[in-house]
Design a protein that fits this description.
With 182 residues, the protein is α+β, with helices and mostly antiparallel strands. Helices cover 41% and strands 21% of the residues. The longest helix has 26 residues.
Length: 182
Amino acid sequence: MVELATPPAMDPAPANGSAHGSPPGPDAARRLTRIELPDATPLPSAYAEADRSQAVADLLAGNHFDPQGVPGGPFTLHLCVRDGRLAFDIRDAADAPLRAILLALGPFRRLIKDYHMIVESHERAVLEGGMEARIQAIDMGRRGLHNEGAELLAKRLEGRIALDFETARRLFTLVCALHQRM
């Protein structure tokens, strides 16, 4: 199990975008402050591990996560695969369960498979000392897949969890990390 949280000394930027002492907006509590990946196993490469770690760090530094019909916040998210479904186990700050949302993985399979192939190609190109243009082209393809995955995730969660685009992108990275081989 991988447990990741905002360190107590680190105060992420307020949801209203101000990094200074301005009063937080009304949605400041509608965010994630901890993410647990109970099914996370070591990833096949240091590159993939760094990708997952960066997604978590970016997600905890700034996100909008608004589960519909769930009061309070901020939230903890246990993200895992259960019985072939993607599980968003939403909890309060004390880790008490609030709501679980299950999504079928079928609509994500092609994107996750393609994402893993692109990440492997990128890593191989970097290790081989590939031309900068080749690495940039692979990275553009990765960003495109990332965007497509984020849009699909946001659409599948519509009416259940409101996310901004960057939060959806980072969550899609974590979904890919959970499901290494499809």
